């Protein structure tokens, strides 16, 4: 395995996860804002590493595996920590929907790949919109404190509700695309 810049950026995103997590626990002034900055940088590298890998023809199997894992881990850790801070019923439902969808679609993609049908459940435009709303919402909710009187956390919460709706919609789209394969009654090969 050759360590390329895109792969290094992905690995740095994975390394940022425990630091973001630790910043939820320390009692430092502006720890949450530092976590937000680190989270935002990780989100930027998510876009940048993929763009560079395609542009420089440096895509790798390991990078293709690690990139979505890094994203899902970062989102899951942040959502769980936000829920720990505000254990309300609606937020719990939203967190369960988002994490549950990620597990479901990851399993679906893996299963479809085993059947040679991976392209049937490729990333959709709705999935990209969902990711944009979700990443923005989580960042705003981590920041937590108002900026210039603007209620950042509350706006982030509303955006997270939108992300949850898009999450359900995108999951429906993926499951609908995979349904013909799932409904096939022929025996699977061993």
TrEMBL record:
It catalyses: a CDP-1,2-diacyl-sn-glycerol + sn-glycerol 3-phosphate = a 1,2-diacyl-sn-glycero-3-phospho-(1'-sn-glycero-3'-phosphate) + CMP + H(+). It is an enzyme of class 2 (transferase). One of its GO terms (biological process) is glycerophospholipid biosynthetic process. It is found in: Membrane. InterPro entries: CDP-alcohol_PTase-I (IPR050324), CDP-OH_P_trans (IPR000462), CDP-OH_PTrfase_TM_dom (IPR043130), CDP_ALCOHOL_P_TRANSF_CS (IPR048254), Phosphatidylglycerol_P_synth (IPR004570). Pathway: Phospholipid metabolism; phosphatidylglycerol biosynthesis; phosphatidylglycerol from CDP-diacylglycerol: step 1/2. One of its GO terms (cellular component) is plasma membrane. Its EC number is 2.7.8.5. One of its GO terms (molecular function) is CDP-diacylglycerol-glycerol-3-phosphate 3-phosphatidyltransferase activity. Keywords: Lipid biosynthesis, Lipid metabolism, Membrane, Phospholipid biosynthesis, Phospholipid metabolism, Transferase, Transmembrane, Transmembrane helix. The chain crosses the membrane at residues 155-175. It comes from the Bacteria. It holds the Pfam family CDP-OH_P_transf. Belongs to the CDP-alcohol phosphatidyltransferase class-I family. NCBIfam families: pgsA (TIGR00560). This is CDP-diacylglycerol--glycerol-3-phosphate 3-phosphatidyltransferase. It comes from Sinimarinibacterium flocculans.
């Amino acid at each position: 395995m050759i360590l390329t810049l895109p792969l290094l950026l992905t690995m740095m995103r994975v390394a940022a996860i425990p630091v973001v997590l630790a910043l939820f626990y320390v009692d430092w002034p502006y720890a949450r804002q530092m976590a937000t900055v680190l989270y935002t940088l990780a989100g930027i590298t998510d876009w940048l590493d993929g763009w560079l890998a395609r542009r420089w023809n440096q895509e790798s199997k390991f990078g293709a595996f690690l990139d979505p894992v890094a994203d899902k881990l970062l989102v899951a850790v942040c959502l769980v920590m936000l829920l720990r801070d505000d254990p309300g019923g609606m937020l719990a439902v939203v967190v369960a929907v988002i994490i549950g969808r990620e597990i479901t679609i990851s399993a679906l993609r893996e299963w479809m790949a085993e059947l040679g049908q991976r392209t049937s459940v490729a990333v959709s435009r709705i999935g990209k919109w969902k990711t944009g709303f979700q990443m923005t919402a989580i960042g705003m909710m981590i920041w937590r404190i108002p900026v210039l009187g603007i209620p950042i956390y509350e706006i982030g919460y509303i955006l997270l509700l939108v992300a949850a709706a898009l999450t359900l919609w995108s999951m429906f789209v993926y499951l609908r695309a995979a349904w013909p394969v799932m409904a096939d009654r022929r025996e699977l090969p061993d």
